[in-house]
Specification:
This protein is of the alpha/beta class. The protein contains 11 helices and 12 strands.
Length: 312
């Protein structure tokens, strides 16, 4: 099968070389880039955008930032609009890791390289590269922290199952759970990845499962929604909450004793790396296909790291 692998590699390299040869700066000589985020109503993506913009503007380029507002159709239309502007590259943070395929095929047809940020896609061969946190490890660390705090926890998970990053977090969480037989998952529900989406779901779960004493929401906004429901039910201190993001809001919840742990991602670093890889490609340098950015567990012992960093 070695000949087949080499053949596919040659085709892929030829395709991306074609992308480079047709790339043109705008009429004023400024390279144009575009990014579509699943939402900008999350500090994580604001930070990621800043990291991306910093690289592009430092190199004399211009970045157009668009907010899909959790809407796959809007994201499809936004990306189509970006492609009409002949960008040097497009960055996509997909709402739906499978539903974005049509946009990736259109970018390929127009010879525009695509870099995926934060949430991988189901068709990695259609993109130049993917830059994301090590989401499996993030989920594993969250579960490990929970197991130490409550080794017999009865857990619910607030998922966002159309997002590959969240799928990886839940898979990492479950993989670590297998090492702790005292842990039990009572239910998995869609929390929509937002404070507003998670709050009513958590309220319902608290009513259905009186024995519930732990929750793993897949990001900080979901965790804040879950905490709001827990607080309204008068159960703060009785339900252990662990999550992923490492935002200032999450850190403040840890400091207040409402959140046990969050696994910090580094969105500015994701943005910075993605921007650098776009320029590497445009300059003819090789680019790694899959780049994982390390994550770090944040608890009350080291929460000052997040709070101090957010002041800078």
């Amino acid at each position: 099968m070695r000949w087949y692998t080499v053949g596919v590699t040659a085709v892929v390299l030829a395709f991306w070389a074609g992308c480079r040869s047709t790339e043109q700066p705008s009429s004023d000589g400024v390279r144009l880039f575009g990014v579509s985020f699943q939402t900008m109503n999350n500090p994580f993506f604001v930070e990621l955008n800043e990291g991306l913009k910093g690289v592009i503007e430092a190199r004399g380029g211009r970045l157009i930032t668009l907010d899909a507002q959790w809407n796959s159709l809007k994201q499809k239309n936004d990306v189509a609009d970006l492609l009409q502007q002949n960008p040097s590259a497009v960055f996509i943070n997909p709402v739906n890791w499978e539903g974005i395929k049509g946009s990736l095929l259109e970018a390929r047809r127009k010879n525009v390289p695509v870099i995926i940020v934060d949430a991988p896609v189901s068709e990695p061969d259609l993109v130049l590269c993917q830059v994301a946190s090590d989401n499996f490890e993030a989920g594993r660390l969250a579960c490990e922290s929970l197991a130490k705090a409550n080794p017999r926890a009865k857990i619910v998970i607030l998922h966002l199952s159309v997002n590959r990053a969240c799928i990886d977090r839940v898979e990492g969480f479950k993989a670590e759970m297998a090492k702790h037989p005292g842990l039990k998952v009572l239910d998995i529900q869609e929390g929509k990845g937002s404070t507003e989406g998670a709050r009513p779901v958590m309220r319902d779960l608290l009513g259905r499962f009186p024995e519930l004493d732990a929750v793993f929401p897949i990001n900080d906004p979901s965790a804040l929604g879950a905490i709001s429901a827990i607080e309204a039910a008068g159960r703060i201190g009785q339900v252990t909450v662990v999550t992923v993001d490492g935002s200032r809001e999450g850190a403040l919840a840890i400091q207040a004793g409402k959140l046990h742990a969050t696994v910090a991602q580094f969105p500015r670093e994701i943005g910075r790396i993605a921007g650098e890889k776009a320029y590497d490609h445009l300059e003819g340098k090789p680019v790694e296909k899959d780049i994982k950015v390390p994550v770090k567990l944040i608890t009350k012992e080291n929460v000052h790291e997040i709070l101090n960093a957010s002041k800078k």
